[in-house]
Amino acid sequence: MSDAQSVDQGTAYGRPPQHPNKLLTEVGPGTPCGEFMRRFWQPVFVASDVTTTPKRVRILGEDLVIFRDGKGRVGLLYPRCMHRGTTLYYGKVEEQGIRCCYHGWLFDVEGHCLDQPCEPNQGEGYREKVRQPWYPVEERYGLVFAYMGPPEKKPVLPRYDVLENLKDGEHIHAQMGGFGSTGDDSFYELPYSWIHMNDNVLDPFHVQVLHSTFTGAQFHPEFALMPKVDFFQVEDGVCYSAIRTLDNGQEVDRISHWVCPNIMSVPGIQLETGPSTAVSWVVPVDDEHYVQAFATRGRGLGGLLVHGSLWKDKTEAERREYPSDFEAQVGQGAISKHSEEHLATSDRGIVMQRRMLERQIKAVAEGEDPIGVIFDPAKELVHIRSGNFFKPAAAAE
User: Fold this and answer.
1) I need a labelling partner for 266 at 20 to 30 A (CA). Which of 59, 107, 109, 212 fits?
2) Rounded to an integer, what distance in angstroms lies between the CA atom of residue 85 and that of residue 105?
3) Residue 201's closest CA among 143, 129, 146, 280?
4) Are strands 251-259 and 237-245 parallel, antiparallel or unpaired?
5) ∠272-283-30 over CA atoms, to 5°?
6) Are the C-beta atoms of residues 88 and 62 closer than 8 Å to each other?
7) Residue 385 has pLDDT above 50, yes or no
8) pLDDT reading at 215 higher than 90
9) Virtual CA dihedral for 96, 102, 104, 108, nearest 10 degrees?
């Protein structure tokens, strides 16, 4: 039997080598997607967790160190001290900045060298000529955001309408970790590509299968109803509308909004009425890891019980029996082989999303500004379309 005959019969023998879409999965410095992602502000840490104790950060394939100096300012620096290359992770934070443990060079949050104690006159006349690599940061919604792109292209840090105009007693709760995949704090960094979760937000049909019928009701029981879905492009991303007619005759339109390049707002999973109350970012750590950042209006993300227990408390046998997002996504591999996918009509939203990403990555490579970056402070407010929007039974007819 020839190789061609074997493939025609559908056996696994003789399959050609498969590969990922590297344009979307490679995020390190100098890669097309990496340079594209660096044109946007990315959340790197929960603000309350940034203290005078230096902490390691890895984002977009770069290792960094983050700290808060004695004046309360956040610094995000390249970790190898520019003097002799030891890591500032072992440095000591002072009022003005962070001091290297090896020879005591002191750097402020913007990398200026303030002191060289082993040099005559503390390095005066020389220290002004050197600078530790650093990145700009801003704090908002309880998160620390970093801009890692060209300084002359630094945009405004956006605001999101669903997180603004808090009522008395309301607050924004910030978290980072694997909650969006496991439903609890089992992971901080997820062991697979950011694209796995980025695709997920425009996949309304997996809610009906994975979360509702295959493993039983993980979310609201009404998600077991197959929705009527429409995907549509908006100026800053892609949305879907998933309409269900509930048992009581009400019609609910569940809208999810993906904002280019890696921002999503998912409506309440218990069919809470009204606009979404959360925004999250799928932040690439490197090609094979990501971390998800959440800003939630009101209470934070609680642990999601599936068949009576949290993900971290389940045995491997229970996870195989009752899979959820983590199992489905980690099962794609650290980096999925996109060339062997067979996308169908239900994947239209994912196709729209990936094509938009590819177009914008190429636009940046050609010297253009991508959609979604904002340079005018008067336009910093982003409208989030997500929510569960109900119509009375009579109006739905």
Assistant:
1) 59
2) 11
3) 280
4) antiparallel
5) 155
6) no
7) yes
8) no
9) -30
- Give the pair of three-digit tokens for residue 382: 């982003």
The residue that leads in pLDDT, 80 or 299, is 80
Report how far residue 22's alpha carbon sits from residue 25's, in angstroms, rounded to the nearest whole number.
Answer: 5
CB-based contact 279:265 (threshold 8 Å): yes
Nearby residues of 242 by Cβ (< 8 Å), 6 or more positions away: 204, 207, 227, 228, 229, 253, 254, 255, 256
Number of residues that this document lists for the chain = 397
The Cα angle at residue 263 between residues 194 and 200, in degrees rounded to 5? 50
pTM for this prediction: 0.93
For residue 181, the model assigns a pLDDT of 92
CA 347 to chain centre: 21
Structure tokens at 373: 């970056």
Overall average pLDDT of the 354-366 stretch: 98
SS (H, E, C) the chain: CCHHHHHHCCCCCCCCCCCCCHHHHCCCCCCHHHHHHCCCCEEEEEHHHCCCCCEEEEECCEEEEEEECCCCCEEEECCECCCCCCEHHHCEECCCCEECCCCCCEECCCCEEEECCCCHHHHCCCHHHCECCECCEEEECCEEEECCCCHHHCCCCCEEHHHCCCCCCCCEEEEEECHHHHCCCCCCCECCCHHHHHHHCCCCHHHHHHHHHCCCCCCCHHHHCCCEEEEEEECCEEEEEEEEECCCCCEEEEEEEEECCCEEECCCCCCCCEECCEEEEEEEEECCEEEEEEEEECCCCCCCCECCECHHHCCHHHHHHCCCHHHHHHCCCCCCCHHHCCCCHHHHHHHHHHHHHHHHHHHHHCCCCCCCCCCCHHHCEECCCCEEEEECHHHHC
Extract the tokens encoding 102.
């090896």
Q: Which residues pair with 75 in a beta bridge?
A: 67
* Spatial distance between the Cα atoms of 148 and 28, rounded to a whole number of angstroms: 11
Say whether pLDDT at 32 is over 90. Answer: yes
